[in-house]
Amino acid sequence: MATTTLLGISGALRAGSTNRKLLREAARLFGECTYVEADLQMPLYDGDLEEADGVPESAERIAAQIAEADAVILSTPEYNKGPSGVLKNALDWVSRVPGTPWADKPVAVMSAAAGRAGGERAQMILRGYMVPFRPHLITGPEVHLAASSKQFDENGTLLGEQYVKDLSALMAALRDAVSRTGAH
């Protein structure tokens, strides 16, 4: 049996961000898989840049990673009541790559934020951003990690029984979606 490839996309660029930690915990709770984390370092979307130079290699690489993955997990911080600009920028660039890498792809969305709502608004908006791509969005349970800087131990393990329970259930739903699509 082939191993499932799980792509993690963090809306935070910081190496030690709680969104990256949440993705890594999601991959751990997903179970046996090959986990790959996308790099969102790329220029801001600019139609003139695209016309002059084409789609950047970094955007093409992420589109290929999405296409090759059996499932994708997205985690967003909440910046000023919405997802990060870097995540929206990556989605915009990927939309310019020929093909439909997101189509019917099982996708789980989560968030980690400083606020008490745990990025709920950002996650809701991110789900809206995904609609034109037509992925298979896993609808729940929703994971909104509040006061995220206090939710991991020194090894990056998620604390809080309810958070672990919800993230485990979300990953079980994602595994089920992967098995139904026949991916991997």
How would you summarize the topology of this molecule?
Blueprint: E1 4-10, H1 18-30, E2 33-37, H2 47-53, H3 57-68, E3 71-76, H4 85-94, E4 106-112, H5 120-130, E5 136-137, E6 144-145, H6 161-181
Parallel strand pairs: 1-2, 1-3, 3-4, 4-5, 4-6
CATH class: Alpha Beta
| Average predicted confidence as pLDDT | 95
Estimated share of beta-strand residues? 15-25%
DSSP strand count: 6
Low-confidence stretches: none
Please state the CA-atom Rg, rounded to the nearest Å.
16 Å
Q: Can you say what the CATH homologous superfamily is?
A: Flavodoxin domain
The largest pleated sheet is described as: 6 strands, parallel
What does this protein structure show overall?
This protein is of the alpha/beta class. The protein has a single domain (4-181), classed as Rossmann fold. Helix content is 40%, strand content 16%. The chain contains 6 helices and 6 strands. The protein has helices at residues 18-30, 47-53, 57-68, 85-94, 120-130, 161-181; strands at 4-10, 33-37, 71-76, 106-112, 136-137, 144-145. Strands 1, 2, 3, 4, 5 and 6 form a 6-stranded parallel beta sheet that branches. Helix 1 (18-30) crosses helix 6 (161-181). The longest helix has 21 residues, at 161-181. The relative contact order is 0.19. The mean pLDDT is 95.
Keywords, separated by commas or semicolons:
184 residues, alpha/beta, Rossmann fold, globular
